Amino acid sequence: MKSLLLSLVLLLIWTGSGSAQKPRRCRTPPLLSGSMSVSARDGQDWAFAKYRYDAIGQRIRVWEFGTVESRSFHLNMLFLFREGVVYSMDYRNKTCQKNPLHTAFHPSHIPHNASLLAQAVLGGSSAPGEGLLVNSWTGDVPLTGGKYMATVTEFGCIPVSTLYYTPQAGWVTTTYFNAVTGVEDPEQLIPPAFCDDAAAEDEELDFFSGFMADSVL
Known about the structure:
4% helix, 1 helix, mainly beta
């Protein structure tokens, strides 16, 4: 499952000029909403997620379901990096688990040491509106010994896809869609009232292990 979740962070290392200019490294909009699909182990593990991303307040909300090692899971989590807390929420039963979060927040961007692989048009280029101009970047992640290829739109720096590889997890493929700048309902980035009395758990969670907290059915 870590292979899927690792992408959900490096996804949040996404990476945007006119076609007559050399593409530049960029940052995604500070407020972003959308969906993503993640696939690993040749499609044996997969997940579909909706997300809300707030770089200003350093908050990320994730609703996710999928299958890992032939087991289904459903997740509803709120990561508050500035406060150092992650909430795992169950709206049906009005229950909430609160854990310490010690992972630093890293704004979604194309890293300064990334190399431009290519600029391309997804779809067609024969007529206006047929295609989407994108830039693909590659780089290494020394912390994990991994490497990645991130594709973002030329205009807006909106993530399109990410390929991420580590010797342990192999290739993880992430595709983004239905992205909209902004967060329509800011309350989605605030813990619900039934979390007010949630007792803090002793177990510390990082961005990866948080997705594994008692969520596999």
